[in-house]
UniProtKB/TrEMBL annotation:
Transmembrane segments: none
One Pfam family matching this protein: IF-2B
SUPFAM superfamilies per record: NagB/RpiA/CoA transferase-like
Pathway: Amino-acid biosynthesis; L-methionine biosynthesis via salvage pathway; L-methionine from S-methyl-5-thio-alpha-D-ribose 1-phosphate: step 1/6
Organism, as annotated: Halomonas citrativorans
Family of this protein: Belongs to the EIF-2B alpha/beta/delta subunits family. MtnA subfamily.
Molecular function terms from GO: S-methyl-5-thioribose-1-phosphate isomerase activity
Name of the molecule in the record: Methylthioribose-1-phosphate isomerase
Active-site residues per Swiss-Prot or TrEMBL entry: 227
Catalytic activity: 5-(methylsulfanyl)-alpha-D-ribose 1-phosphate = 5-(methylsulfanyl)-D-ribulose 1-phosphate; 5-deoxy-alpha-D-ribose 1-phosphate = 5-deoxy-D-ribulose 1-phosphate
Length: 338
């Protein structure tokens, strides 16, 4: 039996199991992760995904490696550096590894305890920000979301979807529009699956339909997650988020970003400083791997495929963190960084 478990992660003494998110919604397949190399493959393929979950799972991988290689702190550091380089955009990974590295001198047992504490902390952070986000939702509202920000991506109820889940428990009636979201259609495959699991009414749309939906007056709020929030409030999220923010701003639809304090990078001044990962061109040319093998573009078509884009703070109505809800004036004062 695992000694810790979330919707998509099971933690054992010497290994992890993760719910392979590339196989959802057709199959719930749990896969063993017994080494840093296993973890890197899973993260790069998006079998393990979600900024908080990536950081938490890396902490356990590092703790388990240290337990298997006691007294080899130089090796622990080498492994930590390799894990850190796997996903440069999502700052939660850096946060968790920084915390773990600070415990190196205390030995493997302390690392294991610290990883478990990070897991429990994320559960609580999810609940706190979800409660704050739910306070912003009113009965009968129609909410547009992007990518996947639920229990699959965290140790707890999620970030933006966590707010929807808490509102549902309070009896608030919502209708959710789910952007299908590239890469790998994480909204269509994962968020739609979570909406059904939560019994929240939803409709799946292509990303390019969001503007028409807002123009028709059918969206009351937009709620998204984040992979990194800068000191000035700019934030990185799954590619397509910036486009949503621009359209929401034009149509005067409130736009909220929901994330834990662990996603705030005080050292990152603006969105210009966020590294943006590029993904395999094959994802744009067609569907491969777990999704079959269908190519709809010329085999050698040039491709630009960033995983994330950056939304300027000026387009955000509010930042919903576990520590509070911050408007633009509060962001200018740096209150989200305290």
């Amino acid at each position: 039996m695992p000694h810790l478990q979330s919707r998509s992660l099971r933690v054992y003494t010497d290994s992890l199991e993760y719910l392979d998110q590339t196989r959802l919604p057709q199959a719930e397949t749990w896969v063993r992760c017994a080494s840093p190399e296993d973890w890197q493959v899973a993260v790069k393929s998006l079998a393990i995904r979600g900024a908080p979950l990536i950081g938490l799972s890396a902490a356990f991988v590092l703790a388990q490696y240290a337990a298997q290689h006691p007294g080899q702190e130089n090796e622990w550091q080498w492994v930590s550096d390799r894990l850190r380089a796997t996903r440069p955009t999502a700052v939660n990974l850096m946060y968790c590894l920084d915390v773990m590295e600070a415990c190196f001198a205390q030995g493997p047992a302390a690392l294991s305890e610290r990883a478990a504490a990070l897991f429990e902390e994320d559960r609580e952070l999810c609940l706190q920000m979800a409660e704050r986000g739910a306070d912003l939702l009113n009965d009968g509202e129609r909410v547009l979301t992007h990518c996947n920000t639920g229990a699959l991506a965290t140790a707890g109820v999620g970030t933006a979807i966590g707010a929807l889940a808490v509102a549902k428990k309070r009896g608030v009636a919502l209708h959710v529009y789910v952007n299908e979201t590239r890469p790998l259609l994480q909204g269509g495959r994962l968020t739609a699956w979570e909406m059904a699991d939560l019994d929240i009414p939803y409709q799946l749309i292509a990303d390019s339909m969001a503007a028409s939906l807002m123009a028709a007056g059918k969206v009351d709020k937009v709620m998204v997650g984040a992979d990194r929030i800068c000191a000035n409030g700019d934030f990185a999220n799954k590619v397509g988020t910036y486009m949503l923010a621009v359209v929401a701003n034009y149509h005067k639809v409130p736009f909220y970003v929901v994330a834990p304090y662990t996603t705030v990078d005080k050292a990152c001044a603006t969105g210009d400083d966020i590294p943006i990962e590029q993904r395999d061109a094959a994802e744009i040319r067609g569907a491969t791997g777990a999704f079959g093998d269908v190519v709809w573009a010329p085999e050698n078509a040039p491709v630009w495929n960033p995983s994330f884009d950056v939304t300027p703070a000026a387009l955000v109505t509010g930042w919903v963190l576990d520590t509070g809800v911050f408007d633009q004036a509060a962001i200018v004062r740096g209150e989200h960084c305290r």
